[in-house]
Design brief:
The complex is a heterodimer of chains A (281) and B (415). Chain A contains 12 helices and 2 strands, in the order αββααααααααααα. Chain A is globular. By secondary structure, chain A is mainly α. In chain A, α5 crosses α7 (147-174). A two-stranded antiparallel sheet of chain A has the order 1-2. With 415 residues, chain B is an alpha/beta fold. Chain B is 48% helix and 15% strand. In chain B, strands 1, 2, 3, 6, 7, 8, 9, 10 and 11 form a 9-stranded mixed β-sheet that branches. Chain B has 2 domains: 31-143 and 301-356, D-Maltodextrin-Binding Protein, domain 2 (3-Layer(aba) Sandwich), CATH 3.40.190; 144-298 and 368-414, Periplasmic binding protein-like II (D-Maltodextrin-Binding Protein, domain 2), CATH 3.40.190.10. Chain B has helices at residues 2-18, 42-56, 68-78, 94-101, 109-118, 151-156, 165-177, 193-202, 204-211, 220-234, 247-253, 265-271, 313-324, 326-336, 350-360, 370-373, 376-391, 396-414, and strands at 31-36, 59-64, 87-89, 130-131, 134-135, 138-150, 181-183, 256-262, 280-283, 296-306, 365-368. The chains are: A mainly alpha (281), B alpha/beta (415). Chain A binds chain B through residues 10, 12-13, 16-17, 19-20, 24, 42-45, 62, 122-123, 126-128, 140, 142-144, 229, 231-235, 245, 247-252, and chain B through 3-4, 6-7, 10-11, 14, 69-70, 72-73, 76-77, 79, 98-99, 101-102, 104, 187-188, 239-245, 255, 376-377, 380, 384-385, 387-392, 395, 399, 402. Chain B: Keywords: Signal, Transport. Chain B: InterPro entries: Bact_solute-bd_prot1, SBP, SBP_1_CS. Chain B: It comes from Nonomuraea endophytica.
């Protein structure tokens, strides 16, 4: 027996606004960017078709190597630090009295935007900043690579820790209690309880949190732009910063679009591989 | 089928709604928008808007940006959309040529001719605004680059404004020994300042050849300039290039004794309630090469432009004409404490009056600022390169080769 569609005969009409919005605001600009990546375009004269020239140049550009290295640091860093520490804070604060209050200080920085984060931390980490003053050191944190990327990653961790903690706490609250009780009766506690019972139960959620961190790491832009603008001498540039800089600072829209296409392919491929592994696993 | 038709109709309506109205008739405007990348100058622009309303019954509202990349992207995009500025600030040199070639900028030849005749604009400023024999835009400002210094700091350590390079270095040594950082430099945007200054003071002809693609960044003369620059940095004369403190604050607090900047830096002094001749002074930076016949002074002029297809072209042109007049320039110069492009206008600051007068009388060799003299793609590579160099002075060769690569690419199609 055929059941009637939930939205009735006009279901196409119902989804049309959403389809149009997505097509107009997401797919059309993407296709336009993909086209621009095959052109030489300065934003003024009409784009001139140059085939794959932007891509051959891109793979020959030393800046690509630097930005790929920095992006990799960001990806690995965001998958390990904010996620790992978030899980730690969640587990440590989960079943203690007043745990929610313990988590509040970790949550507050999440309210800051990437640019706001840069504004707050730049004066602290600059050469004549508070960090050097308090530590009695004379380090140019924001200038040498890869120290500047690592310093920004720590700032990013400071901000992201809270939300990851929150996600893990929700995960801890939603896992079934029975297996934990059973394991406790069998004598499991502390690390062995976490390692063999809680962690496997948390796995679906961890997959999501790590997946989000993976994509966030790949597209890192605002915090870098606010703190170093990718410098000095492009040594803290990420792929997203390279894309912005080539497009809007150097006004090479075609070349910048080529970076955008590469970044999209990399982010899409990484997410697909990761999710496929997680889902199948 | 019906669904498809509905989708098609909706798409058509959406496209129609987004479409342009190219055939729009010129409007009659009583208020003009002035888009600029000088967000910090908003109150001065506001003052000009109020004055123009009074004097020519045309008011002006500034729309200020602080990020120049974002600003330039907006202006370029506006050429293709309906959100167009009535007036906008830009840069002379390659960037002006670029938008003139696209027929986006209104021709101001008539305004220039009239202003030169009336003595409101000097003839020798016209070449900076000339593309293909015609003038475009009018001067928003002019600036001569020199050294701003903290007067009480100089006095405290018995340092006098130097007249030779040797004296400048001696002054730097004295200040450094007393725990004051002599000079300011930065790795972001204005990273070119000391390169340009040393080039102009060592070999200005080479500088000119470099900016027209007739010399290479890897030439021995350019390497010598970089070596000189490295020598100064390695001697510990500069602040850390990555510091984000505003140079005006460094100068005001006396952490840095000298800041090399254009005369527009006076506006930053004014906003910090610093008085010329008391809190700070200004001197022309002496040449490194003493055999040069004239002291080189870096010069720049920023344009105020109108679009060729402005909403009300007559009003925009009327405003530009008014902008060059002594009545407008008195206010523009005095409110900011800066020099004016109009020779009839003098400012309170004696040091600035004298450099304007001396520059006008041919005492100096005026050298076009690096920002305007260098084509945009080469400039972009150079700013990054110098940013890298000031953070790590061992990168000279790598930096010059990278800039030259961008230059080779550019000049291969632009000679």
């Amino acid at each position: 027996m055929r059941t009637a569609p939930i939205l009735g005969r006009f279901r196409g009409g119902y989804v049309a606004p959403a389809v149009l919005l997505v097509a107009g605001l997401l797919y059309a600009p993407f296709l336009w960017t993909a086209y621009l990546s095959l052109t030489a375009y300065d934003g003024l004269a009409d784009p001139e078709f140059v085939g794959l020239r932007n891509f051959t140049r891109l793979f020959d550009d030393p800046a690509l190597l630097t930005s790929t290295r920095n992006t990799l640091i960001w990806v690995v860093g965001t998958m390990v630090l904010p996620v790992g520490l978030g899980l730690l804070v969640a587990v440590l604060s989960y079943d203690i009295k007043g745990g929610a209050w313990f988590r509040v200080p970790f949550m507050l920085p999440y309210a800051l935007s990437g640019a706001g984060l840069g504004m707050v931390w730049s004066p602290i980490l600059s050469h004549d900043g508070i960090a050097n003053l308090l530590l009695g050191t004379d380090t140019a944190y924001m200038q040498e690579a890869p120290h500047n990327t690592i310093a920004m990653l720590l700032v990013w961790t400071w901000q992201q820790l809270g939300v990851n903690t929150l996600l893990f706490v929700v995960g801890l609250q939603s896992i079934p209690k029975a297996p934990i009780e059973a394991a406790r009766l069998d004598g499991a506690s502390g690390w062995s309880l976490f390692r063999h019972v809680i962690w496997p139960l948390m796995r679906p959620l961890t997959a999501v949190v790590v997946g989000l961190a993976l994509v966030a790491g790949l597209k890192t832009f605002d915090i870098v732009w606010a703190m170093t603008q990718g410098g000095p001498g492009r040594n803290s540039e990420t792929l997203a910063v390279m894309m912005y800089r080539e497009t809007f600072v150097a006004t090479k829209y075609g070349y910048g679009s080529a970076v955008a296409v590469l970044l999209t392919v990399v982010a899409g491929l990484a997410s697909w591989l990761y999710l496929r592994r997680q889902v199948n696993g | 089928m019906r669904t498809l038709a509905a989708l098609g109709l909706a798409a058509t309506l959406t496209l129609a709604a987004c479409g342009g109205n190219d055939a729009a008739a010129p409007q009659k405007k009583s208020e003009l928008s002035l888009y600029n990348d000088k967000g910090a100058w908003s109150k001065y622009f506001d003052g000009m808007g109020a004055l123009s309303k009074q004097q020519i019954s045309l008011s002006m509202k500034p729309v200020g940006y602080t990020d120049s990349a974002q600003y330039q992207a907006f202006i370029k995009a506006s050429f293709r959309t309906d959100v167009k500025p009535d007036l906008f600030t830009w840069q002379t040199g390659g960037m002006l040529e670029e938008i003139v070639k696209q027929k986006q900028v209104a021709d101001t030849t008539a305004v220039w001719q009239e202003a030169i005749k009336a003595g409101d604009l000097p003839q020798d400023l016209a070449p900076y605004y000339t593309v293909g024999g015609k003038q475009y835009c009018v001067p928003l400002n002019v600036a001569y680059w020199g050294m701003f210094y903290n007067m009480p700091v100089f006095e405290k350590h018995g340092v006098k404004p130097p007249t030779t390079w040797e004296e400048l270095i001696k002054a730097a040594d004295t200040l450094k020994k007393a725990g004051v950082t002599p000079f300011y430099h930065t790795s972001v945007l204005f990273s070119f300042v000391w390169f340009e200054q040393l080039m102009a003071g060592m070999d200005p002809d080479l500088y000119d050849r470099l900016s027209t693609g007739k010399a290479k960044y890897t030439d021995p003369g350019v390497v010598a300039v970089m070596d000189k620059w490295k020598e100064l940095i390695d001697a510990g004369y500069f602040v850390n290039a990555g510091d984000k403190t505003d140079p005006a604050d460094l100068l005001k607090t006396g952490k840095t004794a000298m800041v090399s900047f254009g005369t527009f830096f006076n506006t930053s002094m004014t906003t910090r309630s610093m008085a010329p001749g008391k809190d700070y002074g200004f001197f022309v930076i002496p040449n490194v090469n003493t055999s040069l016949p004239k002291t080189s002074v870096i010069f720049e002029s920023g344009p105020l432009c109108a679009l060729d297809k402005a909403a009300d072209p007559a009003a925009s042109m009327k405003y530009l004409k008014w902008w060059t007049s002594a009545g407008a320039q008195e206010k523009w110069a005095s409110s900011r404490g800066d020099v004016s492009a109009n020779p009839k206008v003098t400012v309170k600051d004696e040091a600035l009056n004298s450099i304007t007068k001396d520059a006008g009388s041919g005492k100096y060799r005026l050298v076009n600022r690096y920002f305007e003299a260098t084509p945009p793609p080469i400039l972009s590579a150079a700013l990054d390169g110098f940013g890298k160099f000031v953070s790590d002075t061992s990168t000279t060769k790598e930096v010059l080769e990278t800039i030259q690569k961008a230059a080779d690419e550019y000049w291969s199609t632009h000679q």
